[in-house]
What does this fold into?
Amino acid sequence: MSWIAISIIGYSLLAVEAVMSKYILAARMKSWPLYAFYVGIFSVFSLGFAPFGLKWFGTIPFLISFLSGIIFFLSLSFLFYSLVRSSTSRVYILFGAASTIATAVLARIMIGEIISKREAAGIIFLLLGGAVISYKFYAGRFFSHWRGATLAGILAAFSMILLKSGFDNGTFVTGYIVSRMGILFAAFSALLIPDFRKSVFENIKKRKGKENVENLAGTIIAKSTAGLGTLLINFSISLGSVAIVSSLVSIQYLLTFVFALFLSFFLKDIFIERFSLLNFFAKMAGILFVALGTLLVIFK
It folds into this structure.
């Protein structure tokens, strides 16, 4: 199997995870705090990688990696909050655009480099694509939770930059596990917030034990799917061109839209997609702009 095929499979799995998360959130749990809490608990499984290189790598790198996990939990919380009521394709594409822009800007600030003309052009395309995706042309307004999706992307970028710093000062396995422990810590710490705690426990109590087990299992399957997709994409990068693999991110956005559009015919209350020429071409244009912007920003 070629590395291009591997990357396509990886991006396809990420698209599948997007619609799975939407279904679990909107149809099963109907509570973004509960889903975020379950994802946080799932992070404990990262300890399974401990035999492959977990070791102490210093206080500062430890704190940086741990903080990366905490911030990533906040990112997921805003992402899930937006996903409960908004279109899957809009939320994930805007999240990706915001994350790419924030990564480019924050990385330049932290290492003191000037953004090149190519990267500036990419940011413009990302902003344009994000705006097109966010705007409901048929309603004459932006979709209601665009701020949450944007903030989620910015926080995800900040988390990744911190995580990269942790990797540079230690081993990959150690940085990864410590960051996951940061997510786990943030999930339990969030229970100190009255509204968050109330939403989590009330949603658990009002469901039968079997349903809670099914929801947790669904969360594990969804996040395992995302993990496998990310692994395949990273593996394809190691085999081929990072520029080509990165440009194929448009496949993820396109398939997310196609899957959500297809499911909207059967689950209209869950997958909020309008099947109209205006909506279709607007989202295709948004996907194209975001994909092109991503390629311009990350291509070296």
In short: The chain has a mean pLDDT of 82. DSSP finds twelve helices and two strands in the chain. The CA atoms of residues 108 and 114 lie 6 Å apart.
